[in-house]
Amino acid sequence: MFSIIQAAGWPIWPLILCSIVALALVIERFSSLRTVRVVPQRLLDEVISVTSKSLPAPEVVNKLSANSVLGSVLASGLRAVIADPRITEDGLRIAFETAGRAAVHRLERYLNTLGTIASAAPLLGLFGTVVGMIEIFGSQAPATTAGVGGNPEQLAHGISIALYNTAFGLVVAIPSLMFYRYFRGRVDEYTIDLEQASERIMPHLLRFTSRQS
What are the protein's UniProt keywords (predicted)? Predict the structure, then answer.
């Protein structure tokens, strides 16, 4: 591996840095976008069951908020009703929408960086190719016109720089783009789940406001 890095020359180092960052982001997103940390399957039913007769205590709401992304959205609705027992449906919907936008922003964390790496890696590989071409042209003796002669070691080094950087740029870009699209799809699915959960619990919470109106 070290010999390949040596053959690829100094333009390979930005690509290596991009590959390290991309790998770290992919691992982090896989951990953060697990279903159990975003939309636990039975959480909504449990919240509806617990609040079937009365609203929970603030400590319970805080615990729910720390449970998952869905828990934070549901907790925002509970806090809105607790803070204002006469809240209207529009006011409650605004509370859910505000919490939902913040939740989606959390889910999209680092995705723009991963997409940028996917777009920049081929360009960095192309930059390495240009550097390699400069090395190739520089290896030719001034008197030669047929592209032969000159410094064969410099010629070989220039070819190595051009080919290795092009290949490594694609190796970094293709998986980064695939994971970016995959995580983007997961976020879209979770966004729909959060919206449906908010719509489902909203009539349940409005029952408490109507009792105290």
Answer: Cell membrane, Membrane, Protein transport, Transmembrane, Transmembrane helix, Transport
